[in-house]
Structure prediction request, 292 residues.
Amino acid sequence: MPKDGLPVGARLESLEREVESLRRELRAATERGNAQRSSIVRTRRLEIVDDQGRVHATLDADRSGAVLEILGSDGPRVRVSAPEGRGPAVVLFGDDGAPRVSLHAESVGHWEVAEGGEEMHAPWAMLVASTARGIGPGLAVWDPAGRPRAALVVTDEGPGLYLSGDGEDPAKDALVLQVTGDGPSAAFHDGGTIPRIGLGVRPEMGPFLTFLDAAGNARIVAQEEGDRASIELFDGNEEPSLLLVSAAAGGFSQLVVFGAGGEAALAAGVYGTEAGFEVFREQSTASGGGAG
Prediction:
């Protein structure tokens, strides 16, 4: 008799029951593993076909990310991608296979309507939502030749509208409209990107109009400040040449002519009922006038 006191037959029956229990547990674990494996499909490319075997959608994956394409008869119609290191994107294609609309979510997310030939798909319009400091959303529009023609941008300083000519550089022949804390303004740029005319309205002061030369120096400034309106002429170094001032209430008008170095040389004006003039020399002043 064994040391445990059980007869040999009883001992064998107990071992058979333990073996059967282990078999049942093993079968259950195997079935669970098979069920889990059957619910997972691992592949690098998946194609969805119709009953005639034509591919209508594909799902590809590589080291750069995954791409889902919905296909038409001549190529992709919709593409959804999530490349590594960049944000997700959605692109819609036209009947000719060219991209027409794209939506990107990157550090500078944007939405665009694209157009172009086989080698170039220049956008027609783009809506930008920038995360850069001080720059907010914006809308840009291109012409059919792929040249940027208009842009609306909102920054910390305020909104701005930029209209460009038909040249390659959008800053040439451009019109810039802005509204900032200094008031609304407009700047007209020439073909050399230099602003040549500026006009605007300053809060609590009044409107102004500035003409600039090809070097960007102010030559004529007309403005209103308080109850006085003035016109100033400058030389090529922005030294004053002539100043004409008139008061809104009347009774005061003055003309000042400047010499070399911006020094006043001649002043003439009407002060109430009197008129007068002054000629400034290096060491003396001559004046004259009389009652009206």
